[in-house]
Amino acid sequence: MKINENYKTLETSYLFSQIRTRREAYEAAHPDQKVLSLGIGDVTLPLAKPVVDAFARAVEEMGQASTFRGYGPEQGYDFLREKIQAYYQRFGVELPLDAIFVSDGAKSDIGNLLDLFDTDNTVLIPDPVYPVYRDTNQMAGRSILYMAACLENQFLPMPDPGQRADIIYLCSPNNPTGAVYSREQLQKWVDYAREQDAVILFDAAYESFVQDPSLPHSIYEIPGAKECAIEVCSLSKTAGFTGTRCGYTVVPSELVRGGLSLQAMWLRRQTTKFNGVSYPVQRAAAAVFTPEGMEACRQAVRQYQSNALLMHQALESMGIWHTGGTNSPYLWMRCPEGKSSWEFFQFLLEQAQVVGTPGSGFGQNGEGFFRLTAFGTPEDTAEAMERIRKALG
Ligand code: PLP
Fold first, then answer.
1. Structure confidence by residue, pLDDT tens digits, 21-65
2. How far is the CA of 217 from the centre of ligand 1 (A)?
3. What is the Cα gyration radius of the chain?
4. From the CB of 105, is ligand 1 less than 6 Å away?
5. What is the pTM of this model?
6. pLDDT tens digits for 113-136?
7. Does the Cβ of 203 fall within 6 Å of ligand 1?
8. Distance from C-alpha of 319 to C-alpha of 189, rounded to nearest angstrom
């Protein structure tokens, strides 16, 4: 038998385990000190009340013969897809229901979408990057080209017309850098993808953090995007669904490659390999999009946004170069005094008892940078920034 040898090429992900090990070693040696974390990429606030109520009602329904539900539609119940459709209308984007596929989260879809593409395609991925884009392609043995996200381009790489590409990953607002593409920049990507006959996989997991009305929430706000882009989105950060699991992917009918409709292919793929998201989770997700649900979820996002603003202002006042923080829960800062990412990690841990994420863990171009997240409590966030200020003197 032959196994998938491509797994041998994957790097073992040491990043978060190494962070944990270093933090635990420090805490064991200094039991009297309280370490604060600005490192986690997970939400901390609970599900909103209207969401929990809908979730509980649906669980009750499952326990009654008259309201019990078995297998649901693989692409999601219409009651949820209609809500998602209406949500997109707020950005001026019209989507037929057939284009919307409900999933158990963005990560699964990001990996599963690759079923639609031959392994012979060339993939364009930013560096630094959410590691899932890289690893899922490496597992399939695709050749990957990296585009440098760096100071010179404000961590927003743009297309190089001389570069061939078939599958292009864009994430905006970005994890880890918090950088957000403008409409004009996304238009250049859409034009490039159409010229190349490429497909953009657009990760909008952090769209609900966009506050600036001039910035796009969805790639479909850009003319021509329906002919070249698939959009993956998630309720994880919008509504605290990291543990509840629900997201959605949009595959427009206009997207045709090699004579085949990618929407028809994705439907075929999902109906073959996926049996849908559980009914109570879809009811909970639908409650996110009701007026009360939206308001309650927005309140949580506002708390994270206000943490991010405080962090942004603190870094600004310290004169530290950074991106993100205004339309994103992530801040990406340059390590002071030319320190490497891990040197700065250790410095902050020892001098400020604050934990963040070394940028080098997200790719070569992350070296010398550091990611802070706004998902903590307002009190811890304020104290952590004050400690950083003191440590940097
Ligand atoms: N995309 C990006 C850029 C992320 O940072 C994350 C989670 O951290 C995901 C997707 C995964 O989202 P989900 O929880 O919906 O699987």
1. 999 999 999 999 999 999 978 999 999 999 999 999 999 999 999
2. 16
3. 21
4. yes
5. 0.97
6. 999 999 999 999 999 999 999 999
7. yes
8. 32
